[in-house]
Inverse folding.
């Protein structure tokens, strides 16, 4: 018995919101990445006692509205998701009243937002200072999907996806599947993550952070720069969108998800798992590799990740332009797949992809290279891929909305 | 969502032991905490009863050398996953891409996160362990299952506290209905640690229970449990499955849900007084003889509904419970997870 997946019924992207170091909104983010500017900093908030301090793409405290900021170890992750969700729903022409008329699901990916990693609480616990339960109560109400649902007074289905660095893309894909299978009419979906010392120390311990601004796909790449932010899209069925005369940014027409079954922190060198996810997404979209106008790569700038993608693109997409936008946003972990989905959609609409900032010297290990300047693209389909810890791969394929 | 899923195999690991025989013994004889963990509070040392699970039998399925760097959270999940596959009669490893893995967890690998923090706090930031870090993510259980069993299909980890199981099952229905995969290996896993117990004691300092009294809604009697419960699920394609069917799965609100009056009820109540009022309201018209809680067997944990479902299926197969039942789990936000089984 072998599966023959159904063609993915189209799901419309009718609203988008994002905030990251490149901008506090979608238009701001796109302006920044087309300008080529980037601003990684050595954080004042997230410090450690390593000999080197590694730059990160950090949001200012003002990234969330007055009164929302609760410190670095708080519900900030969910608050970032709410800010992006407010932009996305407004963009989709939805407000709290109009949302009540539909069955609305919430699906948010994260890595930090669902973790009990409050360092100050644990320090007190470890040293028998018997901490109070304030931060535990905050943790118990910090699930980003719950926070977004509560903000919009939504009572329906919601889930927090914890697929490591593919979480944002998986959340969008799963939410689309909910819509296609009648679980909801509209979904608020995406990813959110925040910087903290646990994440910072963890990636430094893996020796995959660069002390310079990151250099995706470059021969001399040394690793990633961490980032934080949120990307949220509003998804809906064509019927619901038509009923409420909603705009359409793009059509989500393929979603592939696969496992490397290889290693807990290293991607499979041959990229077999990622290839499976790409093939599944293309099959669902009913298109060929040649139909893809461009790729927004995961492109973390770690030696291993970029090698997998570079090798695979050489074999599968030798003529397809691609770029990594992590040079503008940093690696926003559970938010990355969602922020990059939004950048992919905006680039598809504009038929222009931004220069892959940080790349200058080709890696001889693969033939293809990312674009080095803002590059016009021509075509109706674009692909965004995510590669995560534990060998989880996720691929989203978007189709440009036909011009009326 | 109404879409029938056939239950082909069950794997269980908890305070009662591991495997269906151990679970059946507990179902017949009643469960109780099997261990005590100690921790310090401002009132001195506290000994707290727990349902502690042993992942040791995993070595019967996987060579020990492959388990060296895998944490207990992942081992428990992998053990239950292997038992479920063995129970379903499939060989290990599966080595295929038409199997999907879905894991539900409330707390994730928090014990590993604390172990990672131990190194930072006690030794300094430069001593952070990359192995602890990469195993501290919630998805480490699903990832380790795919690695150990060579499953190359889609993987998903859902974390939604008490509603984690319902969310996971809804995703499984979707995957099977749209033929994304032929089989879903789905399970719940949670792990206890001293921080969790400290929190229990801090929230309810004067109430250290000896046993869970799940249907006494006025008392705080929750006792933390750990373990994993997994199932092998497929589409309903003719052959009658050994554990029956999940007929429907739904996420509901207490505002608009009435319990069915014609079916046996498995209540997810696990001794948390905070949910007592809602439970009392929900079951007010139900004959108490028609309600059973199984939490006394496995303990209190966010993914407990996965244990409810797996254990009730096992009990039904052995005629210890009716074959048709409805599993109901409440969370603190007035959400209800409802599973209908036949």
């Amino acid at each position: 018995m072998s599966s023959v997946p159904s063609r993915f019924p189209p799901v419309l992207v009718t609203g988008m919101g994002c905030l990251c170091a490149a901008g506090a909104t979608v238009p701001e983010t796109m302006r920044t990445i087309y300008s080529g500017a980037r601003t990684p900093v050595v954080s004042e908030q997230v410090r450690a006692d390593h000999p080197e301090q590694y730059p990160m793409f950090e949001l200012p405290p003002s990234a969330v509205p007055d009164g929302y900021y609760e410190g670095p170890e708080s519900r900030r992750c969910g608050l970032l998701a709410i800010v992006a969700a407010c932009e996305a729903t407004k963009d989709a022409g939805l407000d709290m009243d109009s949302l009540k008329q539909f069955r609305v699901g919430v699906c948010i990916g994260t890595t930090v937002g669902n973790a009990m990693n409050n360092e100050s609480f644990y320090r007190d616990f470890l040293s028998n200072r018997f901490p109070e339960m304030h931060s535990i109560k905050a943790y118990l109400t910090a699930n980003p999907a719950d926070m977004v649902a509560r903000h919009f007074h939504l009572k329906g289905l919601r889930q927090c996806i914890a697929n490591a660095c593919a979480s944002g893309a998986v959340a969008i894909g799963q939410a689309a599947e909910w819509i296609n299978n009648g679980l909801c009419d509209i979904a608020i979906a995406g990813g959110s993550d925040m910087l903290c010392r646990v994440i910072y120390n963890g990636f430094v311990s893996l020796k995959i952070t660069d002390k310079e601004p990151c250099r995706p796909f470059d021969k001399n790449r040394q690793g990633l720069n961490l980032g934080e932010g949120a990307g949220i899209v509003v998804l809906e069925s064509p019927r619901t969108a038509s009923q409420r005369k909603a705009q359409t940014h793009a059509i989500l027409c393929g979603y592939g998800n696969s496992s490397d079954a290889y290693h807990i922190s290293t991607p499979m060198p041959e990229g077999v798992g990622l290839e499976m996810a790409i093939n599944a997404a293309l099959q669902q979209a009913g298109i060929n590799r040649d139909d893809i106008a461009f790729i927004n790569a995961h492109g973390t700038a770690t030696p291993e990740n970029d090698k997998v993608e570079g090798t695979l693109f050489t074999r599968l997409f030798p003529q397809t332009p691609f770029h990594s936008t992590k040079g503008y946003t940093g690696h926003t972990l559970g938010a990355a797949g969602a922020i990059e989905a939004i950048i992919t959609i905006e680039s598809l609409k504009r038929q222009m992809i931004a220069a892959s900032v940080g790349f200058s010297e080709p890696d001889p290990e693969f033939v293809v290279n990312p674009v080095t300047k803002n590059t016009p693209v021509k075509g109706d389909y674009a692909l965004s891929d995510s590669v995560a810890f534990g060998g989880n791969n996720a691929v989203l394929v978007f189709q440009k909305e036909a011009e009326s | 969502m109404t879409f029938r899923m056939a239950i082909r195999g069950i794997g269980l690991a908890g305070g009662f032991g591991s495997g269906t025989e151990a679970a059946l013994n507990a179902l017949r004889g009643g469960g109780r905490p099997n261990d005590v963990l100690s921790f310090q509070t401002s009132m001195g040392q506290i000994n707290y009863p727990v349902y502690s699970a042993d992942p040791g039998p995993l070595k019967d399925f996987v060579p020990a050398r492959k388990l060296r760097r895998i944490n207990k959270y992942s081992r428990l999940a992998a053990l239950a996953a292997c038992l479920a596959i063995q129970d379903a009669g499939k060989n290990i490893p599966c080595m295929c891409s038409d199997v999907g893995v879905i894991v539900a967890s409330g707390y994730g690998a928090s014990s590993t996160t604390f172990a990672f923090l131990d190194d930072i706090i006690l030794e300094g930031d430069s001593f952070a362990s990359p192995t602890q870090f990469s195993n501290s993510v919630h998805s480490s259980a699903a990832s380790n299952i795919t690695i150990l069993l060579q499953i190359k299909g889609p993987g998903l980890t859902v974390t939604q506290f008490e509603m984690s199981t319902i969310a996971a099952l809804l995703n499984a229905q979707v995957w099977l209905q749209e033929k994304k995969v032929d089989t879903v290996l789905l399970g719940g896993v949670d792990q206890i640690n001293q921080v969790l117990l400290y929190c229990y004691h801090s929230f309810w300092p004067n109430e250290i229970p000896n046993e869970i009294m799940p249907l006494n809604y006025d008392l705080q009697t929750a006792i933390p449990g750990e373990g994993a419960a997994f199932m092998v699920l497929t589409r309903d394609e003719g052959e009658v499955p050994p554990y029956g069917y999940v007929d429907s799965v739904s996420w509901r609100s207490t505002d608009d849900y009435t319990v069915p009056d014609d079916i046996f009820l498995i209540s997810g109540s696990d001794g948390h007084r905070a949910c007592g009022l809602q439970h009392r309201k929900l079951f007010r018209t139900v004959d108490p003889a028609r309600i059973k809680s199984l939490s006394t067997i496995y303990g209190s944990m966010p993914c407990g509904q996965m244990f409810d479902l797996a254990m009730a299926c096992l009990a039904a197969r052995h005629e210890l419970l009716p074959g048709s039942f409805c599993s109901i789990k409440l969370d603190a936000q007035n959400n209800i997870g409802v599973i209908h089984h036949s």
The mean pLDDT of chain A is 94. DSSP finds 13 helices and twelve strands in chain A. The longest strand of chain A covers residues 11-20.
